C-alpha cells in the first residue's frame, strides 16, 4: 500500500521524527498498518528497556490512542528484521491528529540501534517497504534540476568559445551532482 511517511528510506541510530504526507489524517473507525525496520545488537537498558516508534491521537472525550512498535530488551538484546502493528482507530471524534511519529533510539544506554524504513499504510496487512510517492517524485525532480544545472553551466562555459580551468571545474562539479542525483534515484527504485 501507499506509504504515508515521508523521507523514510533511512536507517539511523539518532532519534528522529517522521512527518506524514500533508494529505494524510487518521480517520475514526479506519484500519491501518504500521511497520518499522530494526537492526539492533547488544542493547543495554537505559531510562527504559526498548527502542521503536510511537505517536498518539487525541479524542474529544479527553482520551488518547497510542500507536507504536517497540523492541524490548526482554525480547532479546539482538534483533534484525521488520516488525508491524495493525490497528483500528476508535470510532470517536478526533481532535488531535498527529502530523508524524517519533523514532525512539535513546531509551537504551548502549548497543547498536539502527531503526528506519517506517511505513504507515491503509489496511489490515503490512506490506513490503516502499517510499512515499512524494519522495520518489523528489528524486526525479532532483535529476531534472541537476540536468538543467549542467546544461546551463556548459552553455555559460561555451559562450565565448573557450573553456577556462575554472569553468572545467564547474562543469565537472555539475556532472558529479547529476551523477549523484541519478544514483539516488536508481537506489530508490531498487529499495
Rg over CA atoms? 22 Å
β-strand amount:
35-45%
Average of pLDDT: 90
- Helical region count? 2
Q: Which structural class matches the secondary elements?
A: alpha+beta
Poorly predicted runs are none
Helices and strands, in N-to-C order? EEEEEEEEEHH
Helix content: 25-40%
Shape: elongated
Distance between the termini: 15 Å
Number of strands: 9
Biggest pleated-sheet summary: 5 strands, antiparallel
List keywords for this structure.
alpha+beta; single chain; five-stranded antiparallel beta sheet; four-stranded antiparallel beta sheet; 2 helices; elongated; 191 residues
Structure overview:
Helix content is 27%, strand content 38%. It has helices spanning 133-158, 165-190; strands at 11-12, 16-19, 31-45, 50-59, 64-72, 79-88, 94-96, 100-104, 108-122. The strands form two sheets. Strands 2, 4, 5, 7 and 8 form a five-stranded antiparallel sheet that branches. It has a four-stranded antiparallel sheet with strand order 1-9-3-6, with no helix packed on it. Helix 1 (133-158) runs antiparallel to helix 2.
Could you give the topology of this structure?
Elements: E1 11-12, E2 16-19, E3 31-45, E4 50-59, E5 64-72, E6 79-88, E7 94-96, E8 100-104, E9 108-122, H1 133-158, H2 165-190
Antiparallel strand pairs: 1-9, 2-8, 3-6, 3-9, 4-5, 4-7, 4-8
Helix pairs in contact: 1-2
Amino acid at each position: 500500500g501507499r506509504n504515508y511517511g515521508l523521507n523514510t528510506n533511512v536507517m539511523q541510530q539518532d532519534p528522529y521524527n517522521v512527518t506524514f504526507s500533508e494529505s494524510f489524517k487518521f480517520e475514526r473507525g479506519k484500519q491501518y498498518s504500521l511497520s518499522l525496520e530494526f537492526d539492533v545488537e547488544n542493547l543495554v537498558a537505559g531510562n527504559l528497556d526498548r527502542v521503536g516508534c510511537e505517536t498518539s491521537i487525541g479524542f474529544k472525550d479527553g482520551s488518547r490512542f497510542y500507536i507504536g512498535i517497540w523492541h524490548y530488551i526482554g525480547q532479546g538484546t539482538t534483533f534484525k528484521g521488520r516488525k508491524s502493528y495493525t490497528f483500528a482507530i476508535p470510532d470517536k471524534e478526533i481532535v488531535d491528529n498527529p502530523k508524524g511519529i517519533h523514532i525512539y533510539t535513546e531509551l537504551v544506554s548502549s548497543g547498536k540501534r539502527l531503526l528506519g524504513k517506517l511505513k504507515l499504510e491503509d489496511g489490515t496487512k503490512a506490506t513490503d517497504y516502499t517510499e512515499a510517492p512524494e519522495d520518489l517524485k523528489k528524486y526525479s525532480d532532483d535529476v531534472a534540476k541537476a540536468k538543467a544545472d549542467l546544461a546551463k553551466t556548459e552553455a555559460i562555459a561555451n559562450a565565448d568559445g573557450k573553456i577556462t580551468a575554472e569553468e572545467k571545474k564547474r562543469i565537472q562539479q555539475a556532472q558529479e551532482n547529476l551523477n549523484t542525483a541519478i544514483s539516488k534515484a536508481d537506489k530508490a527504485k531498487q529499495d
